[in-house]
Amino acid sequence: MSQRLGIAAALLGDPDVLLLDEPVNGLDPEGVHWLRNLLKERAAAGHTVLLSSHLMNEMAVTADHLIVIGRGRLLADSSLADFTAEHCRSVVRVRSHEPERLRVLLRESGAEAAPEPDGTLRVTGMESREVAKLARAHDIGFDELAGESTSLEEAFLEMTARETQFAAGSAAGSRKGARHDVL
Questions:
Q1: Which backbone phi and psi does 124 adopt, to 5 degrees?
Q2: Which of 42, 52, 158, 164 lies at a C-alpha separation of 20 to 30 Å from 74?
Q3: Taking the CB of residue 106, how many other CB atoms lie within 10 A of it?
Q4: pTM for the predicted model, two decimal places
Q5: pLDDT per position as a tens digit, 25-51
Q6: pLDDT of 169 above 70
């Protein structure tokens, strides 16, 4: 309730510009939904709404435009659509009857294909429709073929990897911690 009260106080006087830092922290799912709709309505009415957040999944469903700052430098200033088109890569997962033969054909066609522990191939550099067409052209059957794209969070982490200010090892030993803001 204190988070909602703070947001209500920020809205007093109907400001033209609203700047909120981590506004969904502490909100329940209903509160997050309410706030997201409220902010979208204000923006649609011509008000400027600036959000600072480390929650990329929330930004992916709320923001229209991203500004990414790392170590005091502007790293990106673009629409969400342009940012994801530039920084999110598509991945195709395929479970084939002849995975090694398909992997060779994919590489020869300019794609990268890596075997996954579950027996699928993880393909980058080629869309799912093209993978299916290549497999069919060479009479290679497949049981499963699914296209997916990297998330905004993954694209953000990849983009800001060189801008790490504070490094801390993670439990999984993967990417080091970083300090970045998205507005």
A1: -125, 150
A2: 42
A3: 25
A4: 0.60
A5: 888 999 999 999 999 999 999 999 999
A6: no
* Strand 73-79 relative to strand 180-182, pairing: unpaired
H-only helix segments in 48-183? 56-62, 80-87, 99-108, 128-137, 152-160
Please give the sequence-ordered ranges of beta strands (E in DSSP) within the chain, or none if there are none. 17-21, 48-52, 65-70, 73-79, 90-96, 112-115, 121-124, 142-149, 180-182
Q: What letters, b where the CB count within 10 A reaches 16 and e where it falls short, cover 68-94?
A: bbbeeeebbeeebeebbeebbeebbbb
Alpha-carbon distance 27 to 171, whole Å?
27
**Per-residue tokens: 41:** 């309505």
CB 147 within 8 A of CB 92: yes
Structure tokens belonging to residue 129: 């429709």
Calculate what percentage of the chain has a pLDDT beyond 90. Answer: 49
Token pair of 117 as six digits: 């522990």
The helix-helix angle for 80-87 and 152-160 (nearest 10°) equals 70
